[in-house]
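User: C-alpha cells for this one?
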Amino acid sequence: MNELISKRWSPRAFSADATVSAAELRTVLEAGRWAPSHGNSQPARFIAGHRGSETFAAIVETLTRGNRTWAPKASVLLIGCVLTTDDKGDIPNVEFGLGLAMENMALQAVDLGLIAHMMGGFDKQAAHTAFAMPDNARPLVAMALGRQGALSDLPEDLQAREQRERKRLPLSDTVFTGTWGQSELG
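Assistant:
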C-alpha cells in the first residue's frame, strides 16, 4: 500500500501560526479536480478561504460548536459541495465524485507535508445561504487544512482522541464472497 494512504489521518491540532501558501492550496485543489467522477461529470465544487479572510470567517460560522474549538486554527477552511444537475439533467452519483475529490485532496496534503481533517459537523443550510449557492449546489463536507500544531493546544478530551490508536476493521469484516458476511480473507 502506498505510504501516503497509511500516513493520512485526521488530526485536530493545527498550528495557528503556520500558513498554507496559495501555491500549496492550488496544488491540493488540483488534486481534487483530477478525481474520477460518474461519466466525467465533475460535480465537485469548493468554497475555500485562508485564515483571516471573510470566506474563512463565514465558514467558521457554519461549524458546529465542537469543530469551532479547533478548526479556526487551520490555515485554510473549505466546504466541499456537489452540483446535482447540469445542462443534461440530474447528475448521478455526485457524492462519489466529491468523496473521491476530497480523498485526492487529503492525500495531496499529506504529500505536501500538510494535514487535513474532513468534517460533517457544519450547518449545510447556513453554508448554502452564506455563499449564495445556486439551487443545484449542495454542501456536503467541510475540510480544515494546515500544518500540525501542538497537541497541548487542544482541550483535554480532544487530546485523548488525537492519541488513540488508529484502527480499521479487518478485511474479513468488510469484503464478502458469495454471501454477505462470509469472507475468504483472514
